[in-house]
Amino acid sequence: MYEPDESLVRTAQQDNRVAFGILYERYVTRVYSYVYYRTGNAHDAEDLTEKVFLQALTHIGGYRDRGLPFSAWLLTIAHNLVANWHRDRSRHPVVSLDNAGHHGGTDLELTDTEDHQMVREIVATLPQERQHLLLLKFVEEMSNADIGRVMGRSEGAVKALLYRTLRSLAATLKARENGIG
Amino acid sequence: MGSDELSQRIKGSIAGDSAGSLAMEEDLLNVANRLKQAWPPLTPSLAFQVRLKERLMAEPRPVTTDPQITVLANHSRELVLGAAVLSIAGAAVFLWRSRMPVPSESHSARIA
């Protein structure tokens, strides 16, 4: 029988690891996907995914719904860890040996095309906040209202930012396809 | 969610101020679709999933991070420490005074 997140979270908050384990299984793929597309390689994605769930385990006692679903809370933790990761990398640049984007599963290898790679490359040059926004919208398929709660913005502000971001992306993609820049 | 429904949601989400720019909206929708295709859901390796789950199950019980409890605990420690310091100081003063010579009666009389 499917148990809703709210019920599992309440149980997990009593340090019930079985309940936490169900939540983990429910969201590990989503968190991993999000982190992979923000970091670009499987090794760091695994490392950060692990940190996300360890932090969630430590702090689940302090989690309160307040309209923010548990999955959105996990992604907020992920976003903060990824932001720290990027900041640390900028201070101590590391040459990645894993530029091909290999990871444990074969989903990406089977369906990836040059266009997909180009799109991801261009998105990776955007500010962190905009990458976060696009992933929440198009990978996590969250509503603007939920995105607003995660990012601490109004729904209208999210919609406006999304519009500007997509417009900018469209222009960049067109320029790249026309061989400019 | 089906692709048609998502397209409708995306259109609703990204409609800008200039309603007349259908070409622009189509462009944005095109970008949105390309983003979705460029980001298929990824599955981490089974070995990783199993290892992480085992770690989470075995992790020691998290220490409470309730800020109110932390503040109270800190204050209690301060109170105990303060009492201990005062007790030691008081005991030291008592011992010091008990070792001081008692003035003689003639000395007391001269002072009086």
What does this structure look like?
Chain A is built from nine helices and no strands. Chain A is an all-alpha fold. In chain A, helix 3 packs across helix 4. Chain A starts with a helix and ends with a helix. Chain B is elongated and about 105 Å long. With 112 residues, chain B is an all-alpha fold. Chain B has five helices and no strands. Classes of the chains: A mainly alpha (181), B mainly alpha (112).
What is the average per-residue confidence, as pLDDT of chain B, rounded to a whole number?
A: 73
Q: For the CA atoms, what is the radius of gyration of chain A? A: 18 Å
Class from secondary-structure proportions of chain A: mainly alpha
What is the terminal-to-terminal distance of chain B? 102 Å
**Which two chains touch over the largest interface?**
A-B, 53 and 40 residues
**Order of helices and strands of chain A, N to C?**
HHHHHHHHH
Shape of chain B: elongated
Mean pLDDT of chain A: 87
Number of strands of chain B: 0
How do the helices and strands follow one another from N- to C-terminus of chain B? HHHHH
Rg for CA atoms of chain B: 39 Å
Largest beta-sheet characterization of chain A: none
Helix/strand/pairing category of chain B: mainly alpha
Give the count of helical stretches of chain A: 9
Q: Number of DSSP strands of chain A? A: 0
